[in-house]
Fold this sequence. Notes:
This protein folds into two domains: 2-166, no CATH class; 173-339, Trna Endonuclease, Chain: A, domain 1. It is 48% helix and 15% strand. The protein has 13 helices and six strands. Strands 1-6-5-4-3-2 form a six-stranded mixed β-sheet. α11 links the parallel β4 and β5. α1 (2-43) crosses α3.
Amino acid sequence: MTHQFAEIVTLIQRSRTNAQRMVNVELINLYWNVGEYIHRKIQSNIWGKGTIKELSDFIIRHHPELKGFSDRGLYRMKLFYETYIADIEAFSDDRNSEVIGSQLDIISPTAPAKFKSIRNTLLVKISWSHHLVLLEKVRKSEERAFYIRLCINESYSLKELERQVKSSLYERILLGNYPSQERITNKPQKPSVGFKDSYVFEFLNLPEPHNESDLQKALIHKIKTFVLELGKDFIFMDQEFKIMVGGVNFYIDLLFYHRELHCLVAFELKATEFMPEYIGKLNFYLEALDRNVRKSHENPSVGILLCKEKNNEIVEFALSRNLSPAVIAEYQTILPDKKLLQQKLHELFENELA
């Protein structure tokens, strides 16, 4: 009977979740239509800019039960419509099946199209609060599209979205120049997707200087936020994971499992600049995992060497003859300078066009 009761509870919870989603769909669609109406009235010079305040006063005075329609709220609805109308077709819901592995196959603007309803677009898949964060803190349409898809695929809370925007995830991913999802699955010797080129650990409040032990303890203490920075396909398995080779015990700093790639992921932590000899130890761990821990249906294990700093040329030389699936990444303990990252992107694109 207990099992049957649990099934009923599951049905109730599922129905409530679906109802909440439908409410959000209708709310976002309403705000879109209100924004469109105001935009068209102003564009046709039927309304002046002061009319929005008059509309807000009218609603407050005659319909106080309607919340969220202050003049500020109405301006936001107008901005919401004006922000997305130019490329609304690119948000068609049939694109929702795309994996964020093609995260950087970013939306390109399309011709304007008038939508009486946006119920079948990705815009209704996130909350109004999420939209407000993107409208207020993100300027580029491609970047907003990236975060919308990320929110949908990763089920980001408002706090998680704010943190990723603040940590300049979009710029960091572009600079990381991720290849396609297939490279890690079919040719694991050159992994990159799902594994960033750099990580931001501002939430650790680590002192300077610090050592590997300090870093490991801090990451475990903040494991939920750490997984958010890694990506939600990562499942934490253990710290100081023991493997035995030749009767001798060895310990992997952190061990994860990646759901999308179906492989073990070993993290080796270094609170120093990358050195070529670090690769040997990581390869040893990966071989031990594949021989003694990996299951037959899983892909080869991946190693991530997380260093305080790295010289890209040294990393390239160190990995040029390396056959194991390894990633050399660096971390920083303060939020990156968004303007500096944007400047780097600008220089990168200029070099490609030259």
